[in-house]
Task: structure prediction
Amino acid sequence: MSDVTANDGAIARIDTAVKSNDVVLFMKGTPLFPQCGFSSRAVAILEHLGVEYASVDVLQDQGVRQGIKTYSDWPTIPQLYVKGEFVGGSDIMMEMYEAGELAELMEEKGVKPA
Result:
C-alpha cells in the first residue's frame, strides 16, 4: 500500500468522523485520559459546555494524526469540528469559550447540551 493510498484512507476516516458527528474532537488520548495539556483543556471546555461530542485519539492512528493536519490545513492537535465545520484548536476554543462565542456557536448550529 502506497503512502498516498494510506493517506486517502485516513482522510476518508477523518471525513466520516467529521460528517457523522455533530461535534468531534481530534485529540491526543481520550476524554478520560488526555495525553497532552491542550487536549485536556479542549475536553474540559466541551465538558463545561455540556455538549455531547465524539473524540478521535490521533495517537492510535498515525495516518489520522498526519491526515487531520492536511484535512483542516491546521498544523496542531487538538482540533474541534462542529456540524462539519472546523472551529480551531485549544487556544481558539479557549478564546471563544471565554467570550461566550463557543456556546453561541453550539446554539446556532443546533447542538443541544447533553
Summary: The chain has a mean pLDDT of 93.
